[in-house]
Amino acid sequence: MALSEWPGDDSHVTRWLQQYLHHSTSGVPSNSAVSVTGWEQLRTTVTLNDDTEVAEVIIDASQVNLRVNESKNRPGNKHPDATDTSNSQPAVVTRRPSMIRSLRLHARPVRIEDIAVTCDAAVHDLPIEWITYAAPQHADEEWSRYDIAGDDSAVPLATRATLAASIETADIGRLIARVMRPLLRKERIMLRTLSVTTRGALPGTFYAQIRMAARWKLLGASLTARVRVRGNDRGDVLLASISLRSINPLVVIALLFARPRLRELRGTRFSLNAELRKEAATPLLFVRSLRVRGGQKTTLHISLDANA
C-alpha cells in the first residue's frame, strides 16, 4: 500500500489496519504459548472526520478462537514483531498529532478453548500520532512505512474507556480446566473435574465456589474452595472470607498447615486504582465504575477515565 500522504482517506487507513492486524497475527510461530485461528473473519472499519482526526474505528473479532498450546514457548523462536537489535528503526519523517474519537472492539463471541466469551471494549478521545518513516519497518512491506502510535506528550484529560464481558458461569470451570490441564500434565497431575459457581454482585458482596478433583499417580484428591469478597464501585475489594474443604484425609492434613496463611489472607484489601498507580508513574486511566454480577452468567463491566 503506497500512500502519498498519511493517513489519506478512510479506505487507506482501513487497509493499513487490516494489513497491520494480519502481520501481527499470521506470523505467530507454531510453538507459541497461544495459537489464534479465525483471524480471516476479523472485520475492520475506519471513518475519518477530516484529513487527520479519526471519528470511529470498529474491530469485530467475533469467531476468533484462542487456544493454549502444550509444551510451547521453546527458546530460540520469536514472533516477527519481537525486538531485533540487528535492524535499526527507520528514521521518522513526520509526526502528526491527532485523536481517535471512538475505538470499539466487539467479540460476540470470541472463543477461548472453544468456550464462548462475549466482550465489548471501547476507548474514546484517545490522543494519537500519525507517523511516517523514511523506509518500511518490515522489508518489502510498504504499508509498514506508516504507523499509528499513542501520543505520550498529550494530556488525555477527556480519554475514557469501558469494558464489558460475560460468560456462562458453567463454562468458567471448563475454561480454567482446559487452560490448566497442559500445565498440570507436565507435573504428572491429571485434573479430572473443575466447576465454578458464582452469586451476588459488586458493589456489594460476591461469592464464588470452586470444586475440583485431581489425581497424581495413584493418589486422588478433591477440594472445595469458597471465597466471599466485598467491594465498591471504585475497584476497592476486601477478601471477607476464604475456606478450603476436602474429604480426602491427606488433603485435610495439608490444609491444617495452610490455616495460618488463610487467616492472614482474610481481610486483605485490593485496589485497582492503586495497582494502576504502581504499574505506571502517570497512569492514563483510573477506575470510575466496577460492576460484577454472578448467577447463571457471570458478567463484568468496568469504566475508566482520566479524571476518576
Walk me through the structure.
There is one protein chain. By secondary structure, this protein is of the alpha+beta class. The chain has 2 domains: 10-154, no CATH class; 167-305, no CATH class. It contains 4 helices and 15 strands. The chain has a 15-stranded mixed sheet that branches. The chain is globular. The two termini are 41 Å apart. Mean pLDDT is 86; it is low at 72-86.
Shape: globular
Bin the strand percentage: over 45%
What does the radius of gyration come to? 23 Å
* Unreliably modeled segments: 72-86
Q: Can you give the helix content as a percent range? A: 10-25%
Q: Sketch the topology as an H/E string, one letter per element.
A: HEEEEEEEEHEEEEHEHEE
Mean pLDDT across every amino acid position: 86
Described by strand count, sense and barrel closure, the largest sheet is: 15 strands, mixed
Strand count: 15
The span between the termini is: 41 Å
Number of discrete domains: 2
Please provide a brief summary of the model.
Helix content is 19%, strand content 47%. It is built from four helices and 15 strands.
List keywords for this structure.
about 300 residues; alpha+beta; 15-stranded mixed β-sheet; 15 strands; about 20% helix; globular
